[in-house]
């Protein structure tokens, strides 16, 4: 799978024109939704905890036209698979192929909510690198749900749309994801990170701009995905559930750092380390939010570093490629770095002084070449606006 970063080949007007060429009519509108980077708060989402992602300046765009029948025609600008045609009445979990499972999953999920979904023609374009842990899948789903919410007049709130896309991913696509990605994609704002309480979906926008602080946020996509990722994720969730059960709380969110001494006496060694990651990570999210508001992004480096160490040693979801990216970026001048996303591959982030950017990029490329690894893709991201209508 290629994860090369490509700019949008088409702007909104271009996508609309492509739609007209392909479907013989102008679309009703063009919507976009971004991918996301998680600044901090990893594997805390399914523990009712805190996360701090931000929407990025890489987006999925859809041009959509409502039809008068129940036919759905889907086309994308990538690959040359042509138009996929299906019917709304036949949507069933586990049956859709490739990227089409994301828009179809959203249509299905809206049907499950009792929304009267019309047939549509849709063309998709995306600049979110896929499989890099930037949530290219949710970018598609959030663009589609935004379009359908408007076109059907369903009047869903952001919270409703978050749950609708989660249902699409969980029950139609079959990916056991939480609510972080879609919350960032739907609720993100330019120059801000999205502080999300996964227990009640409460969101606070926290100012986060690297540039005025003389920094850039680099993403290092290692392009590796280790085969034990799925099993590893399930095992981590089980450990967390066990930890909460033994501690007698609904979720690890309810365990605080000061409870850890007691936890170490109650839990087996492995479960304790898993719990310690989640508990300290929640604490680091809160500390990051506080620091961003009081001291700015230049102050959060040590928290990013501590997060990585916790994931590497306690939660054990890093991998040699991610560790190499993080360690090299730090040695070359980044002020903080961590793996981001579910782990076992994917991307790392490195908060880097502008004047050190070249040095960090070169050092990482060199280190990967020396280790005989696939050349990573390195690019900058900035906190961007969440889902919106373009045309
Ligand atoms: P992530 O969401 O972390 O990027 P996923 O495995 O959840 O990774 O989603 C990636 C899938 O989304 C791809 O396998 C593909 O089906 C679809 N997809 C997303 N963006 C694109 C794109 N630009 N080109 C082709 N497929 C895409
Ligand atoms: Mg995904």
How would you describe what is shown here?
- It is a single chain.
- This protein is α+β, with helices and mostly antiparallel strands.
- The protein folds into two domains: 12-207 and 385-389, Ribosomal Protein S5, domain 2; 211-381, Alpha-Beta Plaits (2-Layer Sandwich).
- 40% of the residues lie in helices and 23% in strands.
- The chain is built from eleven helices and twelve strands.
- It has helices at residues 12-23, 101-112, 136-152, 158-173, 180-187, 229-247, 260-266, 269-294, 301-314, 320-331, 357-370; strands at residues 29-40, 50-66, 71-76, 84-87, 120-126, 192-197, 202-207, 215-225, 336-340, 345-353, 377-381, 388-389.
- The strands form two sheets. Strands 1, 2, 3, 4, 5, 6, 7 and 12 form an eight-stranded mixed beta sheet that branches. A four-stranded antiparallel beta sheet has the order 9-10-8-11.
- A hairpin with a 4-residue loop joins strand 9 and strand 10.
- The longest helix is centred in the C-terminal third of the chain and has 26 residues, at 269-294.
- 50% of the residues are buried.
- It binds adenosine-5'-diphosphate (ADP) and magnesium ion (MG).
- Magnesium ion (MG) binds next to helix 3.
């Amino acid at each position: 799978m290629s994860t090369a970063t490509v700019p949008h080949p088409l702007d909104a007007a271009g996508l609309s024109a492509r739609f007209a060429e392909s479907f013989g009519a102008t679309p009703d509108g063009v919507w976009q939704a971004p991918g996301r980077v998680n600044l901090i708060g990893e594997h805390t989402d399914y523990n009712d905890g805190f996360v701090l992602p931000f929407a990025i300046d890489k987006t999925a765009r859809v041009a959509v036209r409502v039809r008068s029948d129940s036919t759905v025609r889907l086309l994308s600008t990538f690959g040359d698979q042509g138009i996929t045609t299906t019917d709304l009445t036949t949507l069933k979990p586990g049956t859709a192929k490739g990227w089409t499972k994301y828009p179809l999953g959203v249509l299905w999920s809206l049907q499950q909510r009792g929304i009267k979904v019309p047939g549509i023609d849709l063309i998709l374009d995306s600049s979110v690198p896929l499989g890099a842990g930037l949530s290219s899948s949710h970018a598609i789903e959030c663009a589609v749900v935004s379009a359908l919410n408007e076109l059907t007049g369903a009047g869903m709130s952001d919270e409703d749309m978050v749950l609708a896309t989660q249902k699409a991913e969980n029950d139609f696509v079959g990916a056991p994801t939480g609510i972080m990605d879609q919350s960032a994609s739907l609720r993100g704002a330019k120059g801000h990170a999205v502080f999300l309480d996964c227990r009640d979906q409460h969101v606070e926008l926290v100012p986060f701009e690297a540039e005025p602080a003389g920094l850039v946020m680099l993403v290092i996509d290692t392009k590796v995905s280790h085969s034990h990722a799925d099993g590893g994720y399930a095992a981590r969730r089980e450990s967390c559930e066990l930890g909460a059960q033994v501690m007698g709380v609904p979720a690890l969110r309810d365990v605080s750092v000061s409870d850890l001494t007691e936890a170490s006496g109650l839990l087996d060694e492995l479960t304790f380390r898993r719990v310690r990651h989640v508990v300290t990570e929640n604490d680091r999210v809160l500390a990051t939010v506080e620091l961003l508001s009081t001291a700015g992004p230049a102050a959060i480096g040590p928290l990013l570093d501590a997060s990585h160490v916790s994931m590497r040693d306690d939660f054990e979801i890093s991998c040699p490629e991610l560790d190499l990216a993080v360690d090299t970026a730090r040695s070359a001048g980044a002020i903080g770095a961590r793996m981001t996303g579910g782990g076992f591959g994917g991307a790392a982030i490195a908060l880097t002084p502008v004047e050190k950017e070249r040095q960090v990029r070169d050092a990482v490329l060199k280190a990967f070449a020396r280790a005989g690894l696939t050349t990573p893709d390195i690019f900058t991201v900035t906190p961007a606006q969440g889902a919106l209508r373009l045309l």
